[in-house]
């Protein structure tokens, strides 16, 4: 299969704490890949590794055949014009209107005349259903609208890859539904590759073509959603079914409970 | 428009700064510094220069014509020597001129007063690097009082 | 031994911080200039940093000048030297109060705002998002703010000084009756363009550089939490003010002794 992004045996440390130890991941071109896992397992870190904002201690991170960690700053910036990222908070520029936010990457990277940029901005906002909100400032938008506006900005330059960082977190069911629909339709109509980082199993499994599950500093399973639902690993089943106890323990590591109580008495 | 308003206000800011600078230049500071233009250097030796300092003014008849640029001791008797820069507008000082360390007012700052000398056939004009031949040292208050007391005792 | 180790560790940390700050600044301001893109950003920051600090500078300058006039007069009149009021007001403002008080006010007004703004941009992932859009946040966010601070603070100091001298004039001449002509002429003979005015401008350029730099670095490296940003903002004002006062002593020693 043709992979747009490929990670091989990636080791990553934050300070001296290992985050990844030997991660292998492939992101097929033109598909929606979901990266799932319990909170704190470093899902966002994965996106930053692909975007070159973080460098792994060892291993290979490839985007369209290029080795991301070894690129120079200039080459990296060239590469980033081909990908975009939707941040958890939206990360809209608070001192600009929605229109100016969407126009920002176009003005930065092209020399297009104003009228054409305005037209592109209207088209992108129409795609996310916010053409009428172009004159508003980010502070005047609801959380769901801000995320859609940020999505319009992410697709302003027609990237090949779009990475969604927790797109469903903190959304009401209606805006969640809108975003699910948008991810699906953008992927189909623009022919781009999507990576969705999330722990909302239901929504994510619904739209993903390919799913990778991270736990214990590794990718423990990857495949199509139906393959994973019948996975032999207890860990994968615990995560997908949302069971409170199992291979991921309910209790944080501690010494023996009874002993602990006795010590306090003594 | 937002940007237009910003630009206008930044323009006002720059204009206010220029007004402030012009005010400081014309109204507050002395921009008629005599040593700004071309100058020549003269020196003079004294017994005592009192409270004279580098940048003290050099005056002829109360008009500033230059500034003291260097003060140092010279020779085996450690005579104080004062170097001064004088505007080339006043380059016709005869070598018979006298230079004195004077005080403006009773407690004021000390300065160099130049008294132009007589001009005669054999008299040259002072050139760059020349030294005044006649100089009067600073009057030191303690010495004056001492002299006064001794002269009283003689009577 | 622990004391020595602590001393060594904290000085190493300070040096590391200064090195990182220097690298940040160099990356921000060195590079191919793009006047068409960066000039509007610069003008915008001149407005935020300079114009919006103008009012506090005008008011403080006026009052400090008036207080100098009043205090100076009551001291000088005992010696019968009230003509010296002009040079006293002018010299203290030009050499010390203009640059220093402006820098302190600037650290509190504009410096803290710069730190909080950049810290919040980091906390809300705006800086990360710029990077992912292949736009260098150092060039785009830090550089225009640096230049605006570096240029506008000396401008503010000049305005502060001029307004302060006028304040001293109103109190001394219009109210307390010092002679109008003597006030200006004695001032003019005592104030030297290069020694006093230019040295004051040099001082405020140095302060502007340091205060803006500290504000930007603290914001850029702020921990992306509300506690982290409030800590960074406080630290900008404290470090900035101390740096200004310390540097003022050094500069004064070099310039006027």
From TrEMBL, chain A:
This is Phospholipid ABC transporter ATP-binding protein MlaF. GO terms for molecular function: ATP binding; ATP hydrolysis activity. The keyword Plastid does not apply. Keywords: ATP-binding, Nucleotide-binding, Transport. It comes from the Bacteria. InterPro entries: AAA+_ATPase, ABC_transporter-like_ATP-bd, ABC_transporter-like_CS, P-loop_NTPase. Residues 5-241 form the ABC transporter domain. The keyword Transport applies. Transmembrane segments: none annotated. PROSITE patterns: ABC_TRANSPORTER_1, ABC_TRANSPORTER_2. It holds the Pfam family ABC_tran. The lineage of its organism: Bacteria, Pseudomonadati, Pseudomonadota, Gammaproteobacteria, Alteromonadales.
Automatic annotation (TrEMBL), chain B:
It comes from the Bacteria. InterPro entries: ABC_MlaD (IPR030970), Mce/MlaD (IPR003399), MlaD_Phospholipid_Transporter (IPR052336). GO terms for molecular function: phospholipid binding; phospholipid transporter activity. Keywords: Membrane, Transmembrane, Transmembrane helix. The keyword Ligase does not apply. The chain crosses the membrane at residues 7-26. This is Outer membrane lipid asymmetry maintenance protein MlaD. It comes from Aliidiomarina maris.
Automatic annotation (TrEMBL), chain C:
GO terms for cellular component: ATP-binding cassette (ABC) transporter complex. InterPro entries: ABC_MlaE_roteobac (IPR003453), MlaE_Permease (IPR053408), Permease_MalE (IPR030802). The keyword Transport applies. It is a multi-pass membrane protein. Its main location: membrane. It is found in: Cell inner membrane. Keywords: Cell inner membrane, Cell membrane, Membrane, Transmembrane, Transmembrane helix, Transport. GO terms for molecular function: phospholipid transporter activity. The chain crosses the membrane at residues 12-30, 51-77, 155-177, 197-216, 237-256. Belongs to the MlaE permease family. PANTHER family: ABC TRANSPORTER PERMEASE PROTEIN-RELATED, PROTEIN TRIGALACTOSYLDIACYLGLYCEROL 1, CHLOROPLASTIC. Part of the ABC transporter complex MlaFEDB, which is involved in a phospholipid transport pathway that maintains lipid asymmetry in the outer membrane by retrograde trafficking of phospholipids from the outer membrane to the inner membrane. Probably responsible for the translocation of the substrate across the membrane. The complex is composed of two ATP-binding proteins (MlaF), two transmembrane proteins (MlaE), two cytoplasmic solute-binding proteins (MlaB) and six periplasmic solute-binding proteins (MlaD). This is Intermembrane phospholipid transport system permease protein MlaE.
